[in-house]
Amino acid sequence: MLLTERSERTRTSSGGLGLAGARSQEFALLPLPDAPALLSTADGIIVRATEQAAKLAGETSPAALIGCRLTDLVTRDGQISLLRARSGEYPVRPLSWPHADDERLRVTVLVDVSDLAESGRDSAHVQAEQGNERRWLIEAQRIAKVGSWVFYPETVELYRSPVLGEFLGDSGAQDATGVAAMIEATHPDDRERARQFYLDVLTAPEDELLEVELRDHAGKRVYLCTGRAEYNRAGRVERVQGTVQDVTEHRALERQLRDERRKLQDAQRIARLGTWEWDPQSNIMRLSNMLHEIIGKPASTPITFDSYLDRVHPDDRGWVQRAWQPLVEEHDPIEVEHRYLRIDGTTRILRLHGTAIKDADGRNLLVGTAQDVTEQRAVVTRMERSSQRFSDLVSITPVGIGLFDRAERLVDANDALCDLLGYQLDQLRGMTAKDITHPDEQNTSLPTPAENSGIRRRVPQRVLVRSDGEPVYCELRTSASVQDDGTHFWLVVFQDITERRRAAEALRYQANHDDLTGLPNRTAVKDLLHKLLGRADSDRVAVLFCDIDNFKRVNDSLGHDAGDELLVALARRLEGGLPEGCTTARLSGDEFVIICSDIEAVGGVDSLATRVSSLLRTAVPVHGQLIRVSASIGAAVPDGAASGGEDLLRFADAAMFEAKGRGAGKVSLASPALMASADRQLHLEGQLREALNSDGLALHYQPVVDADGVVVTAEALVRWPHPDRGMLAPDAFLPVAEQGDLLRELDRWVLRTALKEAATWPLSGGRSVGVAVNLAGLVPGGPEFVDAVADIVAESGICWKRVILELVETALADLPSRTRHEMAELVERGVRFAVDDFGTGYSSLARLKDLPAQIIKVDRRFVAGVGGDASDFAVARAVVDMARAMGRKCVAEGVETATQFHVLSGVGVDAYQGWLFSGALPAREFRDLVARGPMPIPGV
What we know:
Helix content is 40%, strand content 26%. By secondary structure, the protein is an alpha+beta fold.
């Protein structure tokens, strides 16, 4: 039954029955031995059987065996082959060889050895011992991780030990029964080598053992496979046997050892470190490859101790040989560092360590290492030199430098720090940061070192104390570092900023105080008012605005030095005579401001104003003269609305102008009506500012003609086409511009516009017409005066010689040398300066020679009377004669009658300006006037 099932299954799966049936007649002609014999194809399919074979298998006919697979019919159990018959399994010995007529077919003879097997089974003791030996063998294989296999090429049978089955089980091939299945159980990348190994074993000489390493299917395990073929008497391979050993851990260990060896070699190469051993008896030294590379000798070069010493630098050789003696004689470890001369001529520095050991035979052996430390020594040398340079730099640097430990005790300091604090170095050592900090300084610890975060931080400052108790202001910069012994310390740089702090305090004082009198200035006044008006009792604040009467006359007659001396004297009177709670300040020029924090405490506004007026109504000795002065005073108090500091100053200023209008020495309190008027003035100032920014002003031009009526120049006169009030003359808005600090911007606008329009004027009498501009804010000595004028001239493209800048006489008197130099620079380029309204500045005619101007304009008040007033005529004649003598041109202003023209022409006036010829004309009309040619000259 067993055989039947086997045959049916095999036939069904292989399809061999069809092949056997198709060629049964052909196979029947092939001879077989007269014995239990089988004829099979190359793939093991039985195609013919003898009667003896059928009988041995328990079959009634040989046809029952045809189509079966030989490996299913005959199986292997250890060293015994079993025939699977109907009645059971019988031991047989298969003998197989190729058929003589067709080598593609094989003949297998089954020898019945059941009698031998039965005799073995009779001995239970022997059977037990064989079983034990088998188990022991399998256990030994398992321990050794070795499996065995036997392959019979004749029957294509494969025997594998249980341990090998376990190996194959890891690859999912535990049921593999053929060579092909075993090959498929290997890693895909190793299968070709596995096939080649199988072929090589089948063709290898007898008793030659072949090896190959293969991985399992997953590639996780590594197996060492061996195989050896055994041949029969006919010279054919009877069987192949071999082993499979799991060497995964061995190979992993080998890889690890290789990696460790490579890492060691790499580390030695990086560290320039080699190893040596020396046998003193033979005097032979064996060096590692790295050490051969270090000393520059090939690895094949024999090295002795003497040859090593020959390459030691001559200056080091003697003491190096002595340094080796403790190792040679006493076997004491040594460390030697010396210079070594390579055969290529370079010098290297070697550091050697040596010790004594015993080899496997018990002989003394000296071993050690040698490291090339040339670069290290060069780095150390550079570091030592750098450290020395740093020490030298610290010692000579002008800033104080201190070394502090973690407890903030001073360990060392340079001379600059000792000088800064007034101590000797031995006195400073051991003092803490707190000991050298001023008692008034709250923070007595050192600042922590700043991290490099990219954020700009304020440098910490400390107030230190000198040995004499004087404070020293310092900036401290701290850096954490580590000494050679690993000790942490702080390096602190002390930058003395005492003088800088004093300078900063002086600058802050100057920013808030008047340079001349030392009183608080406008900035300080604003800050004080902001502070006072922010209090709950702000309604008690009062502001008094004081303007010295006729102060301009003092400056003009006695000079600016006298005026300054008068202002200082008045400032001291105010400081010493005002009650507590009142602050005196100087805004500008001759303007003083008194701020009272509590007007009720001083008796009210009237009482305070009277007191201030009396202080300023006095006689002051100046330059040997007694000058009597008085002041116009305006007062303002909060009106209950949201009045700010600027409002109070503006209201007090308006009240002062009202008082001045009523006469010298008057006092006026800002009334609601006055405040409203001041607000209107402020509104007008805003409109004027907007007009300047949007070119909302206009220029008219009044011609200046020569004696023939030819227009030689024109004076630009500004007008304001106000949207509500119509065309405004300068006297309507110049005071507003002055109070709003707009004069400079107004001058720049007039100069830029006048030069731009003049560049388009036609010629007059074949000559270009000059343009004159009055300046009141943009004046010589002011900031960037020359640059501003030069930029405007360049922007307009007009010729420099056509530009005339008019200044009042007082603006040109007593000019400092720098201002005169600025004017001379413009004159060199072609600009002409004119003295406007000459004769009204309280100056003598003798001062005419000191005025840095090329044109003198006689004031209209003298011109008006030249036809009938002898004194006016005399003044005009004197001015013209002196101007001519000094090479200056003379222009008469306000010429309105023919008599005036002819009288002035008779005394030598060069040019004339006035209504006799033309009033101020808009730009277009003036251009037309110039185009018409010379103007008519009036008769006598």
